[in-house]
Structure formats: C-alpha cells, structure tokens
Amino acid sequence: MAPVVLLIFSVLSHLVVLHYAVEDGHNTHCPAYLCNEKVGSIGFPFKNKTHSPECGLYTVDCSDRSSPKIQLKEEGYWFEFESITQLNSVSIKDDEPERLLKSDDCNDDTFDMLSLPSSSPIVHVFAHNLTLFKCPNDTSTLDEETSFRKQCGNANHTYYTTASNTSPAPHNCSIIYLPAPDLTLHGFPKWPARFTLQLVVTKECNECYVKGGVCQNDMGEFKCANIVKGDKSLRLKLGLGN
Ligand SMILES: *[C@@H]1O[C@H](CO)[C@@H](O)[C@H](O)[C@H]1NC(C)=O
Ligand SMILES: *[C@@H]1O[C@H](CO)[C@@H](O)[C@H](O)[C@H]1NC(C)=O
Ligand SMILES: *[C@@H]1O[C@H](CO)[C@@H](O)[C@H](O)[C@H]1NC(C)=O
Ligand SMILES: *[C@@H]1O[C@H](CO)[C@@H](O)[C@H](O)[C@H]1NC(C)=O
Ligand SMILES: *[C@@H]1O[C@H](CO)[C@@H](O)[C@H](O)[C@H]1NC(C)=O
C-alpha cells in the first residue's frame, strides 16, 4: 500500500509544482531579482549576470543601484534604464550614445553596438525608430533614387534613410534600427534623451521558459533548447515514486 501512496503523492506534488510554475510564470531556479527600490523586482524575460541563460533574454546589471543598466543584445551596449513595467516596457535614458555618435562620424561598430534588436520568433520588439540601410560603399546607384537619402559613409559602408519606413532593403543592404523620438525624423539620427522599448515575448517562448528550456532563433524558426533536462528530472521523480 505504502509505495502506491508514495507514488500518488509524488505525482500529485509534481503536478502541483508544474501547475504552480505555470500560474506564477516562474522557473523555480530563476528567482526574481531585486534591482533597486525604483525598478523593483525583475524576472523573465530579464535576468541578472549570475542567472543561467534559460532565466531571461536580456541581462540587467543593477550593481550601481542608482543607474541600473540593460543589455539588449549580446555584445551590445549597456543602456542606462529608468524602469521596466509589468508589461515589459523598458524606459531608457542615456546620453552617452549621443556623444559616441558625435565623436565618430559614421562608424560601423558604433551603429552595430547601439542599434535596437529586431523582432524575432522569440520576442516582438516595438520602438519608435529611425530605419537605416547599411549598404556596401559601392552602391552609389542608390544615390540617384529619390526614395533613398544618403546620410553618411565610411570606407566600407554608406548609410541611407528612406522617406517611407516600410521600403524593403535594397540588394546587399542590411537594416539597422536606431531609437528615435516619438515624432518621425527625416534628418540624421539625433539620439533621443529618452526612449521606450516594448518587448512582447512570444507564446512559444513563454511556454518554453515555463518548461525550463532556452528560447532560440534557429534561422528564423523558433526552437526550445535544453528541454531534455526537464524531461529527465520528471522521469526521475516518477521513478523514485515507484
Ligand atoms: C541575481 O539574482 C539572484 C536571485 O535574486 C541573486 O541571488 C544573485 O545574487 C543576483 N546576482 C547578481 C550579480 O546580482
Ligand atoms: C522600426 O520601425 C519600423 C517601421 O515603423 C517597424 O517596422 C520596425 O519593426 C521598427 N523596429 C523596431 C525594432 O521597433
Ligand atoms: C570601397 O571599399 C573598397 C574596399 O574596401 C575600397 O577599396 C574603396 O576605396 C572604397 N570606396 C570608397 C569610395 O570609399
Ligand atoms: C573597412 O573594412 C576593412 C576590412 O574589413 C577594415 O580593416 C577597416 O577597418 C574598415 N574600415 C572602417 C572605416 O570601418
Ligand atoms: C550585390 O553584391 C554582389 C556580390 O558582391 C554583386 O555582384 C551585385 O552586383 C550586388 N548588387 C547590387 C544591386 O549592388
């Protein structure tokens, strides 16, 4: 009798844990992190430097409590931020990028570092932005097209804006999004004193997180990696109950 009771108890408790995880939207090994009094507690899709990769898509650093920072992409710039709402709207206030853009006129690395992440099967990103086309330096045919406007150039690339933000990228050009003030700009980027980034995690990625997996963008296809570990522990627990 006892083993059966144990088994039932084990299954039930596991279900409770699973149910709790779903309800709460938290992984048990991804504890919320208190950033500072103003920002409050941070959880998925945000993690801190010591959390493991499945705990978040963006890393925050609150070691300087008065000016917490967030990294929007790997190897990217650490932006000073003011707040993060319950609905994952991140308010960024940082004037250093303005200085960086000014000090080096048209630098590929600066643009790469400061550009916003684009939407993916993992997360949809919404921000007022200036869309820049980064083209090889020999794409001078674009200069004659009235819909494109040359903004700046260096030895390797020329950067263009367009009148309509929805134009597809010309051949051999890639797209770069820079934050812009709420009003549409026609001139060259003036770094906004403040901007807001709305991050909407896809249903697939939320489900993956709850299962303890890592959300991945596999060439435009969503992939939930590392989920095997969770399965194993489930089987292990059921095995113990026997
Ligand atoms: C990250 O958050 C965890 C959980 O709150 C905490 O134990 C850890 O010290 C934090 N790491 C850093 C670098 O703040
Ligand atoms: C930038 O603006 C364009 C046009 O409004 C939009 O399609 C794109 O998703 C935006 N990019 C980001 C990162 O918000
Ligand atoms: C374009 O790039 C090539 C190769 O990097 C270089 O040789 C050439 O001088 C550049 N042209 C201009 C106009 O900067
Ligand atoms: C242009 O590209 C070459 C080769 O990739 C690189 O060595 C050089 O630093 C680049 N120049 C600029 C201005 O980015
Ligand atoms: C794109 O790049 C390829 C290879 O470098 C070149 O042959 C082609 O002419 C380029 N297309 C345009 C529109 O510049």
Automatic annotation (TrEMBL):
Pathway assignment? Protein modification; protein ubiquitination
Keywords assigned by UniProt, alphabetized = Membrane, Metal-binding, Signal, Transferase, Transmembrane, Transmembrane helix, Ubl conjugation pathway, Zinc, Zinc-finger
User: At the top level of its lineage, which domain of life is listed?
Assistant: Eukaryota
The record's GO molecular-function terms, alphabetically, read:
ubiquitin protein ligase activity; zinc ion binding
Kindly indicate where the leader peptide sits in this chain: 1-21
Give the catalysed reaction(s), semicolon-separated: S-ubiquitinyl-[E2 ubiquitin-conjugating enzyme]-L-cysteine + [acceptor protein]-L-lysine = [E2 ubiquitin-conjugating enzyme]-L-cysteine + N(6)-ubiquitinyl-[acceptor protein]-L-lysine
Q: Which E.C. number(s) belong to this protein?
A: 2.3.2.27
Q: What is this protein called?
A: RING-type E3 ubiquitin transferase
Species in which this protein is naturally found: Rubus argutus (Southern blackberry)
